[in-house]
Amino acid sequence: MTGRTPCVYTYAYFWKQKMGNSAGFSAYPLWLASYSATKPGLVGGWKSYTFWQYTPRASMAGASRALDMSVFNGTQTQLLTMASYGPAPATVQITAALSSSNVRSGTVTYLRGATSRSLAGRTVYRQGYYSGSWHTWATTKVSATGTYAFAIRATVPVNYYRVAVQLPSTSWIASGTLALHTHA
């Protein structure tokens, strides 16, 4: 629902004893807690860890208590890509437009747009800004021609919308923010 890939956080004893050393989650990034001086042994079918939490007793300027400390198993570029940090590649964009941005309450308006045809079949997430963060409220698929559409029934005075889609590289692109104003 958030459009983000979850990361599995665990430690070897728990995974082996309580999860039966299941390999059913190995498609997700692994964040493994192991407080040994050497790299941790793997569990559950993972071929590598994404993060290794190597201590619960790290210190850092400005922190008044001990902190957990982890290391990323990759390059800075890989970490930024995993975090969807930074601008989307210039070659792929996503557009969004409302059929009307000022409508009577209860009226249906449409949010339509387009992206690259190479993203055909990928999920498009219609997100609304609510209570200080973006939430996914609906999904659809990119058509073979690279287009998508959502119907929205206007019910509150102002809503802010955007759409997002995940690229094959696992980074994300999002449209600009659109405001939908509703009146009686």
Can you walk through the features of this model?
The chain is mainly beta. It folds into two domains: about 10-75, no CATH class; about 95-184, Sandwich (Immunoglobulin-like), CATH 2.60.40.10. The protein is built from two helices and 13 strands, in the order E-H-E-E-E-H-E-E-E-E-E-E-E-E-E. It has helices at about 10-20, 75-80; strands at about 10, 30-35, 50-60, 65-70, 95-100, 100-105, 110-115, 125-130, 135-140, 145-155, 160-165, 170-175, 180-184. Strands 6, 8, 9, 11, 12 and 13 form a six-stranded mixed beta sheet that branches. Strand 3 and strand 4 (about 65-70) form a beta hairpin. It is elongated and about 65 Å long. The mean pLDDT is about 90.
Number of helices: 2
The CATH class of the largest domain, by name, is: Mainly Beta
Helix and strand composition category: mainly beta
Percent strand equals 35-45%
- Could you name the ranges where pLDDT drops below 50 across 5 or more consecutive residues? none
Principal-axis shape equals: elongated
From the alpha-carbon coordinates, what is the Rg to the nearest angstrom? 21 Å
CATH topology group of the largest domain: Immunoglobulin-like
Q: Give me the strand/helix succession.
A: EHEEEHEEEEEEEEE
Please give the number of β-strands: 13
The number of distinct structural domains comes to: 2
Per CATH, which architecture of the largest domain? Sandwich
Q: How helical, in percent, are the residues?
A: under 10%
Largest sheet: 6 strands, mixed
CATH homologous superfamily descriptor of the largest domain: Immunoglobulins
Mean pLDDT: 88
**Whole-Å distance between the termini?**
31 Å
